[in-house]
Amino acid sequence: MDKIILSEKQKTIVEYDDKPIYVKASAGSGKTRVLAERIRFQLSKTKKKILALTFTNKAGEEIKERLETQKVDIKSRLFVGTFHSFCQYVLENHGSSIGISHMPHIFENDKDRIELISQAIEQVPTYYESYQNKSVKEKNDFKYKALNFISKVKRELITDSEFHNHTEDENIILLYQTYQEILRSQNAIDFDDLLLLTYQLFIEFSNISSLYRRSFYSICVDEAQDLNNAQYNLLLALCGTDFKNIMMVGDPKQSIYHFNGSSSDYMDKEFVKDFNAETFELNENFRSSKKVIEAASKIISIDNKDTILKTVYDGDFKFIECNDELVEAKCVVDKIKLLIKQETNPDIEGIISYEKIVVLARNKYVFKILEEQLQKEGIPCHYKMTGGSIKYESKLMNIFDLKLKIKLNPLDLLHKKHLEELIKKDSLMMIEIDNLLSELKDDGSNLKSLFGKLIEKINDTVFEDENDKTMVINDIHELLNHWNKYAISTDKKSLLQFKNFMALGKTSTIVESQGITLSTVHTMKGQEFDIVFIIGMDDGTFPDYRAVQNGGIEMEQEKNNLYVAFTRAKRFLYVTYPLQRIMPWGGIKHRSKSRLLKAFND
């Protein structure tokens, strides 16, 4: 077992007393190493479990991987997962105290939530008549406005008596109440309900929150700058007045989820005040080259002290101004080809490959012309995807998925409607799907064997289009991959829990795709590449034009977005922007360099 080498600052944090601590960790400072090592150190002092809360499943997996190399018994000694995963765990075990006898089904798809709000609108007669007279755009805008209000109510823990302090629109309030009634009638909840219900459980039944306090020796929160009101108050309810062994790790400069209600203030101010937490600053950078760090510090300057560079690499940083999007795309492609042709560089370990390159943008639509040019040049690329439920390609497995949801939850009228729309006539193999579902045990113990038999029958069946057969088999294998990952994560299995695990992204496997990665900044948070391109750095694109219009906290978030984008680069960073864009309606709009880059005008 290799010994983990820590800097003096890191070692001090790892071995600090069992007291509240806030670790203000800048990009590249080794925060995940410190977090994992403090967990390992504390596990050596107790037989109790430790609770490690993250904001992505990937972050949780990284912590597990680091501890497994240190021979730590993860399964029995540590609960590591997202806030939503922890809430699911709590509700599965103690939800009956607030009337949840069986874990509800999680409606995780935005498409489902939009349909639910549409149903709610139809059930509010005082509004429905005027709604019908609106244009398609006005209807869509209103539905998203209503969904945003619903999320706000749950995130901010707004009580019924406080509704009018947050909106004067009676119809929005009625829609919230109707939306919740529809969810309850279908034995379902949405993501925000997981936090809300667990918070209510801890508040209303202090004996249950006390039980969890006694079972955990310490609590560690990763990426704590992403906390929102519901998550922070959930932690307060869990900790009560006597639990103090809690550590929060985060970087205020990387707070980029304001649109989801998050704020670094919960970590930076509220936690420090409420827990009288000791503050440590990790400002040693072990990751990025000197030129990348110098560039990032011009986006957001470092308070009090300069970042202490621990890197030996100079790296590279350049701005590239382009006449238009096509020139910009060709410029990026040419630079990529040149780097690949070089094969090696003193600043980069090993051979320079496509897999060491990522192209970032503020929004996905910015990639369109670049993707076309990459394909034209035969350069492999892929979009970084977020985990979640399976997106089946075949009609047959989509039908299976809907039938399974209804089998597990007969009250699920939403997906019954979807199934009716999908089945217009008897489909090939439909009888086999029905037979499989009738034989499928509630604990899923025969799922693999049943699908194994189904694959044999599919192979012996003549499909009108053989591509359809391939698609079905690929979908089945994808389902089995998710099941295998679920099966090794829990001893007590059920099909319902399996579906909810998938909804929370806990069964997604991170696939190392070949080629250059294309990703939005939000999706790439927490990951790094040797070579980073940031395209579309024109004003109104990055920062987003809506943030420019609204100003205030939204512009601060855009600055944080750019800081995060810069610090994804380990060695080389190239920033490009076009001087004109072709708009969706065909017109040409002249652009200027992003106002976020004004520090580079000199």
List keywords for this structure.
602 residues, alpha/beta, six-stranded parallel β-sheet, 25 helices, 14% strand, globular
Model description:
- With 602 residues, this protein is α/β, with parallel strands linked by helices.
- The strands form five sheets. Strands 3-2-6-7-1-8 form a six-stranded parallel beta sheet, with helices on both faces. It has a six-stranded parallel beta sheet with strand order 11-16-15-12-14-13.
- Helix 12 links the parallel strand 6 (216-221) and strand 7.
- Helix 2 (31-43) packs across helix 3.
- The protein is globular, with a radius of gyration of 26 Å.
Mean pLDDT: 87
Helical stretch tally: 25
Structural shape: globular
The total beta strand count reads: 18
In the predicted model, the low-confidence regions spanning at least 5 consecutive residues are none
Strand content: 5-15%
How far from one another are the termini?
A: 50 Å
Could you give a short account of the major beta sheet?
6 strands, parallel
Query: What class do helices, strands and sheet pairing give?
Result: alpha/beta
Binned, the helix content reads 40-55%
Query: Within the largest sheet, what's the order of strands?
Result: 3-2-6-7-1-8
Cα gyration radius (Å) = 26 Å
Quickly describe the structure.
By secondary structure, the protein is an alpha/beta fold.
